[in-house]
Amino acid sequence: MFCGCRLIESKLNLLKLGSGTLEIDAITGQCVFQGKTTGQLTIAEEIRAWLQQDLETNKIPIAALHTSCLLEIFSHPP
């Protein structure tokens, strides 16, 4: 999910963040870059919505999850 056309809407924001580690909370859509909360990215909302729909489809209550996190490490050339 974190690839290709799904990233188009978030590309400029990701480039502005630069190199580092991005953590997306798939339950809330909250984004943390290098330990600091950032504005929500479109891709984070897509991941959150997908997770919610998948849980509903499989009849899994969201309360059954303790955490659901996507970790991406970016390295942009200078």
Q: What would you note in describing this structure?
A:
With 78 residues, the chain is of the alpha+beta class. The protein has one domain. 29% of the residues lie in helices and 23% in strands. The protein is built from 2 helices and 4 strands. The chain has a 4-stranded antiparallel β-sheet with strand order 3-2-1-4, with no helix packed on it. The radius of gyration is 13 Å and the shape is elongated. The termini are far apart.
What is this structure's SSE topology?
Elements: H1 11-17, E1 20-25, E2 31-33, E3 36-38, H2 42-57, E4 69-74
Antiparallel strand pairs: 1-2, 1-4, 2-3
Defining traits:
single chain, alpha+beta, 4-stranded antiparallel sheet, 2 helices, elongated
Short description:
The chain has 78 residues and is of the alpha+beta class.
Query: What would you call the structural class?
Result: alpha+beta
Question: What is the helical fraction, as a range of percent?
Answer: 25-40%
Through-space gap between termini: 27 Å
Q: How many domains comprise the coordinates? A: 1
Strand order of the largest sheet: 3-2-1-4
Kindly estimate the percentage of residues that lie in beta strands according to DSSP: 15-25%
Mean pLDDT: 89
Number of helices: 2
How would you name the oligomeric state of the polypeptide chains in this document?
single chain
Low-confidence stretches: none
Order of helices and strands: HEEEHE
Radius of gyration: 13 Å
Strand count, sense and closure of the main sheet?
4 strands, antiparallel
Overall geometric form: elongated
Number of extended strands: 4
